[in-house]
Amino acid sequence: MESAKQRIEQLREELDRHNNNYYVLNSPTITDKEFDDMMHELENLEHQYPEYDDPYSPTHRVGSDLSKGFKQFVHTRRMLSLGNTYSVEEVDDFVHRCKDGLPGENVTIVGELKFDGTSISLHYSHGRLVRAVTRGDGERGDDVTENVMTIRSIPLRLQGSGWPDEFEIRGEIVLPWKAFERLNEERAFNEEPLFANPRNAASGTLKLLNSAEVSRRGLDAYLYYLLGDNLPYDNHYDNMMAARKWGFKVSDAMTLLTDIADVDRYIKYWDSARKELPVATDGLVFKVNSLRQQLNLGFTAKSPRWAIAYKFQAERALTRLNHVSFEVGRTGVITPVANLDPVLLSGTIVKRASLHNEDIIRQLDIHEHDMVFVEKGGEIIPKITGVDTDARKTDSRPVTFVKECPSCHTPLVKKDDEAAWICPNKYGCQPQITGRIEHFVGRRMMNIDGIGDETAQMLYNKGLLQNIADLYTLKVSDLEYLDGFGLKSAQRAIQGIEESKNVPFGRVIFALSIPYVGETGAKKLAKACGDIDTLMNMSVEQLTAIDDIGPRIAESIIDYFSSPANREIIERLRSYGVTLSNPVNDNQSQSDLLAGKSIVISGTFTRHSRDEYKEIIEANGGKNVSSISKKTDYVLAGDNMGPAKLQKAQSLGIPIINEEQFLELIG
Ligand code: IVH
């Protein structure tokens, strides 16, 4: 035992020293392989002797190359988002809708701030914090307990009394303005990339592998949603006030509002008062207070019917346009980008804004060095919404669109009825080639782990990757000695490439970067045509007969497959074993066994994922609906079915079936 402990210590010290040599001094004294081996030995020992675990061990903080990242946790109850509104009238409509849904009842609304950070779900058991999980995709998130435990405002042990033995509380992790500014100053000093806003900084910090650094950055957390079976009160507000007594930070802005006039006053007040707050907010949230009424109103697929977000008006800033640059996307579309004098806009420094296309430039009648108005209307990328023509110099010239590709200098082309200029040099223009490769490996396409944007660029520059098919010829030895790679990461990337051969046909179609063919379109094409040969030989008429495929998409598909270079890529993908057809004996597809049946899915499953069950239901003629009503025929229940759903299904007498029973049902 003692020798294991000593060896662990020795390895930690050595690895720390090599990390320092590598990352700080830029002069490694051992090879990647030696480093990998040492790390591997330490990982094994730590696994074998968990009692010697130490949050400061190098296994906890090395970059993505070696770390396994976070464990995933399936949410007990899905983490939904909120419907958005942008005006007092829309909020009033929401209140009316709630009242209409609860005839003859008094409806009290709770007004809250909408904190602009990253959401978190905290689990408490017998008064102790046992788990903290990020939202993730709503179904499952990352277990970030260790990092969350460093946030001083989150109680590790609860105070007072009256808390249920088991409960969940949700809220927002934020980085207060002051801490955000301090962090960015530090990063600027160290020439590290700056965080665009406190939201990005908060979520980036939460995912750090070094919890000591997390602790240093000064995250904070506001809680706004208590969930569990034995909550102390029958209404949201009282529960949150109880949570405050147990030690949680619940915002003072949380208020009961008894009528629409109250709601309107609340909006008016916070529309301006929010600017004084120590943390970023992007709106307000209104929730029906009574839990029984919440249950009656229920949920849509994405959000509760009993709550709504009101988004604050985007702030506007005035700044100078320095120059317009032109960028080439993977489909050859040229995007004009305005490079601006840096300006602070809702807490963010803005330096660039998209100008979208030539028509927008014309409509804005934007001139070189104009003073322009910038807004952040909901999207991440700010946009230019106007020009201060009074500030324009008399001799300034209008901004003109480039005539040739800024990368390969090929003359640009444009279809008469479209706004976008395109570089037609598809196979010779670097940003298009690497853009297509980057798209191909992306998570929603072939999901190839380990080949990111930078790697794709590097492999292209080294002549190892000219197109997506070349990926399948890569070997561990091609990657192992590249910057940022070691043996392990090279092996992982090659394994990712190998595994991508099993990605379903629909995603492969999406991954090809056929102009105008998006994710949904690709799936519909796969379903309708069955295999690549059929797709390659379809006419415009046949293609447009498919749901959602219009003439523009159809022509683009035909154009894509008419290119010998693309056909060659397809043939090569085929020869490497990439999935280019739907499964032959797909017993899950095409039956009428569930025709006319409405089925609600709830909980977590083992045999198939929720998404797969949705597909199975639809493939057998059924309809997947999100909330339980009298019209529901079955509830397909997995583990941890939400208690509200369970109660509602039982009270309406709707049959609840498990996965085995369901799969039996469809044979
Ligand atoms: S309630 C089922 N309350 O906004 C309702 N969310 O767009 C769950 N947020 O994912 C959310 N402040 O991250 C709620 N006072 C507040 C909030 C809030 C910020 C975030 C949260 C959520 C997103 C929804």
Topology (elements, then pairings):
Layout lengths: L1 H23 L7 H17 L23 E3 L9 E2 L2 H14 L7 E7 L2 E8 L2 E7 L5 E3 L2 H4 L17 E9 L2 H13 L8 H9 L4 H7 L2 E8 L8 H11 L8 E3 L2 H14 L7 E8 L2 H7 L9 E5 L4 E13 L5 E12 L2 E7 L3 H7 L6 E5 L7 E5 L42 H12 L11 H9 L14 H4 L7 H13 L5 H7 L7 H11 L2 H5 L3 H5 L6 H12 L1 H13 L21 E5 L7 H10 L3 E3 L8 E4 L5 H10 L3 E2 L1 H7 L2
Parallel strand pairs: 2-11, 17-18, 17-19, 19-20
Antiparallel strand pairs: 1-6, 3-9, 3-10, 4-5, 4-7, 7-8, 10-11, 12-13, 12-15, 13-14, 15-16
Helix pairs in contact: 1-2, 3-9, 12-13, 16-17
The chain binds 2-(butylsulfanyl)adenosine.
2-(butylsulfanyl)adenosine binds next to strand 3, strand 8 and strand 11.
Average pLDDT figure? 87
Query: Which range best describes the helical content: under 10%, 10-25%, 25-40%, 40-55%, 55-70% or over 70%?
Result: 25-40%
The fraction of residues in strands falls at 15-25%
Report the top-level CATH class of the largest domain.
Alpha Beta
Bound molecules: 2-(butylsulfanyl)adenosine
CATH topology of the largest domain: D-amino Acid Aminotransferase, Chain A, domain 1
Tell me the domain tally.
6
Number of helices: 24
Which descriptor suits the 3D outline? globular
* First-residue to last-residue Cα separation: 55 Å
CATH homologous superfamily grouping of the largest domain: DNA ligase/mRNA capping enzyme
The biggest sheet amounts to:
5 strands, mixed
Give the class from helix and strand content and strand pairing. Answer: alpha+beta
Poorly predicted spans: 61-68
Secondary-structure arrangement, i.e. CATH architecture of the largest domain: 2-Layer Sandwich
Radius of gyration, in Å, reads 28 Å
Q: How many β-strand runs?
A: 20
